[in-house]
Amino acid sequence: MNGNAVSRRAFGKLVGAAGAGTLVAATLGGSPGQAAPLPVWTATGTTVAALSAFDNAMKTFMQARHVSAGQLAVTYKGRLVLARGYSNQSVQLIQPTSLFRVASLSKSLTAAALLRLAQDGKLSLGDPVGKYVDLTPPAGQAVDPRLAKVSLWRILQHTGGWDRDVTNFDPLFKDLIIARSLGVPLELTHADVVRFMSGQPLHHDPGSYVSYSNYGYLLAGRVVEAVTGQPYETYVRQKLLAPLGITRMANGYSIARHSGEVGYESQYTGTTVLDNSGTIVDSPYGTFSMRLHDANGGWIASAVDLVRWASAFDAGSPILNSTSLGRAWAVPNPTGVNADGWYYGLGWQVRPVTTGGTGRNTWHTGSLPGTYSIVVRTYHGLSWAAVFNRRDDESGLTYGDIDPALWAASRAVTSWPTHNLWSTYFA
């Protein structure tokens, strides 16, 4: 990523945890024949005149897509300079601390967990996944011998050998197929998915090809649990988030909401995967299992939490030392930098930047029914996070457009404010 828009093809391929089985359109707005209510625009948090371009970008984006809830936080040179909540209707008032599902932004936490465990001498990133996770396949199925070569490095860099584009099969969104194959009830467990996938052949030799894999990060979460003896969420909150003063972030629920969490919207419905009832539900509430997605897409956070978390990847981090940060930004070997000039590090997409010196822009997006999210860290000391409570609507407009819109807003700033709002949101 740079100051220009990343190619849509590139972003589309690594947009995050996308898709949720077969969905059908649902009615938007009021009752059939009724016009949808007119939007009521409300912004919360401190207004910063010098940064009005960011507010304008969010308003334009949200109103064009009928997004009812959004949030933005911006840091400059380590200072929190903007923290805003945006509501496009009166149903829910969004504060800068309201919580949103963040989907695949979760991957940076999972990668950092393995980096920290390696830093503490608890594991080696070169270890095979099978050292920590039982990869026994279903009875009567053979294990692909290449599975033994799938290392922790490879699952974090999406080079484990699974390729959802080959078969249109992402096991994190094929709950019904897996349950029928194994003869187990819904809701699936992590162990169910691992057992099913352990009987499937790899599509590529491990390390030879980059293909975005939610399943690889599911495995990474199980490695954290095996090594620490703690639930994945507990380890991340205690060892990674608490030292940064982040207390709001948590793994989300499929149906219930945490205190302060927003409601999610979509134009689609689908069959629940939370039980065997066959019930048709709104797609954000049961067409995928948040329990399964914990390590690859299950976290909830506010935008201010996300930029605080992004600071853990700056030099001098209290979480990761310089060796760990170097590993986070390492180029996959032997696949290297792709034709679009970026590559997948450990939980982040990375673009080397040589203009005006050397450095890198790092970012990730997240996408689930009812969620779109993005975090960006720039080579020249900026970061921002934006979250929304939907990813689809009848406008047909792409949600990836928020990326160039926020880059444009950053370039429109002529003088960056000197205030620091961290103490407003963190003890």
| Record field, number of beta strands | 14
Percent of residues in helical segments? 25-40%
Output mean pLDDT: 92
Low-pLDDT stretches are 1-35
Radius of gyration (Å): 21 Å
* Total helical elements: 14
Structural class of the helices, strands and pairings? alpha+beta
Task: Describe the overall structure.
The protein has helices at residues 8-13, 52-65, 106-119, 152-156, 164-167, 175-182, 190-198, 214-228, 232-241, 294-297, 303-310, 322-328, 402-412, 422-425; strands spanning 23-25, 42-44, 69-76, 79-87, 100-101, 250-251, 268-271, 280-282, 299-301, 343-344, 349-353, 359-368, 371-377, 382-388. Strand 7 and strand 8 (280-282) form a beta hairpin. The protein has an eight-stranded antiparallel sheet, with helices on both faces. Helix 3 (106-119) crosses helix 9 and helix 3 crosses helix 12 (322-328). It contains 14 helices and 14 strands.
Structure described in brief:
The chain is an alpha+beta fold and 427 residues long.
Entry keywords:
single chain; 427 residues; alpha+beta; eight-stranded antiparallel β-sheet; 14 strands; globular
